TrEMBL record:
Organism: Chryseobacterium joostei
The organism's place on the tree of life at top rank: Bacteria
Transferase as UniProt keyword: yes
Upper taxonomic lineage: Bacteria, Pseudomonadati, Bacteroidota, Flavobacteriia, Flavobacteriales
InterPro entries given in the database record: Glyco_trans_2-like (IPR001173), Nucleotide-diphossugar_trans (IPR029044)
Domain Glycosyltransferase 2-like: 5-112
SUPFAM superfamilies: Nucleotide-diphospho-sugar transferases
Keyword annotations of the record: Glycosyltransferase, Transferase
Protein name in UniProt: Glycosyltransferase family 2 protein
Gene Ontology molecular functions: hexosyltransferase activity
CDD domains named among the record's database cross-references: Glyco_tranf_GTA_type
Pfam family, one: Glycos_transf_2
Length: 312
């Protein structure tokens, strides 16, 4: 039987937290539900304390300084506190479905598999949240990848380097990973990225570990969409969006160089990073930089980002 630690970062999630915890604690495979309370301003801490006192599986932790450090740092603390040999993640405003670990039970019989990911669904909790989400994302009913894959194909697929479109990413709610697989390269979330730290983690994980698709045609978890989802608040290709993407791809570009990943993948990461770098420049300097980059790397014109800018 799998022994799984489910890590839930908690910040201002009082309205949803009990449902999330119960959805994880229901599984025999889940030996502990680790709540990392990140200095909420609502009564999330009190609910965490109540849940941990009522349910033996639930364990509550805070950062040593009891401060707010973001979801990345919270998940890292959860990884350090986890005692099971497998780790899964869940956002505090989401929940697991009864089939959450069905694929893992079979796939992890193969010892070479480090991690499994699946599809997730979407539930609209408010009308405003639904409007904002549907205006920004094409995958509204099922967030998944386009075909079964494993190993290097997943890493290349996430970077758009496969012959057919794999999909841009997958959600942490659908991922289960062997804890020991994180250690050789000390794979952790980038605590300096307040958003997109999950995307960076997934790309690094796909490179260093042997991942495999699980159930990709049916949801195993549900993402709750409401008025306060941060991901829906940013207008695509607005200056704030481009700045956040720049920080993500700048970090990945440094990682790719430090780890000497294959040249094709390294160059793709660089071109995406550079396209967002160029998008943040202004005026005549911007066009001089674009011209210089195009002369050096004509392939940058093939990126879907195309030095995007935002007019309003």
């Amino acid at each position: 039987m799998l022994h799984i630690s489910v890590i839930i970062p908690v910040y201002n999630a009082a309205e949803f937290l009990e449902k999330a915890v119960q959805s994880a604690a229901q599984f025999d495979e889940v030996k502990e539900v680790i709540l990392i309370e990140d200095k909420s301003t609502d009564n999330s801490l009190e609910i965490c304390q109540q849940l941990s006192s009522e349910t033996p599986k639930v364990k509550l932790f805070q950062h040593p300084d009891q401060g707010n450090h973001g979801a990345g740092a919270a998940r890292n603390l959860g990884i350090e506190k986890a005692t099971s040999n497998f780790i899964a993640f869940l956002d505090a405003d989401d929940y697991y479905l009864p089939n959450r670990f069905d694929a893992e039970k079979e796939i992890f019989k193969d010892s070479k598999i480090d991690g499994v990911f699946n599809a997730i669904g979407t539930e609209y909790l408010t009308e405003k949240g639904k409007e904002e989400f549907e205006s920004k994302f094409k995958e509204t009913s099922l967030s998944t990848v386009n075909y079964p894959a494993e190993g290097e194909e997943i890493f290349k697929g996430l970077l758009g380097l496969t012959t057919k479109t794999f999909g841009t990413s997958f959600h942490l709610n659908s991922l289960t990973i062997r804890k020991e697989s994180l250690e050789p390269h000390h794979i952790r979330f980038n605590k300096d990225l307040r958003v997109h730290q999950d995307t960076e983690f997934i790309i690094k994980l796909a490179y260093h570990c042997h991942l495999k698709t699980g159930c990709i045609d049916k949801a195993v978890a549900i993402r709750g969409v409401h008025d306060n989802n941060r991901i829906t608040k940013i207008i695509k290709y607005s200056p704030q969006y481009n700045q956040r993407q720049f920080l993500l791809w700048n970090s990945l570009n440094s990682w790719a160089s430090d780890n000497q990943i294959p040249s094709e993948s390294r160059k793709r990461i660089y071109l995406i990073y550079k396209s967002f770098d160029l998008s943040l420049k202004k005026g005549f300097v911007k066009y001089c930089n674009i011209l210089g980059e195009v002369l050096k790397n004509p392939e940058i014109l093939k990126t879907k980002y195309r030095f995007t800018y935002y007019n309003k």
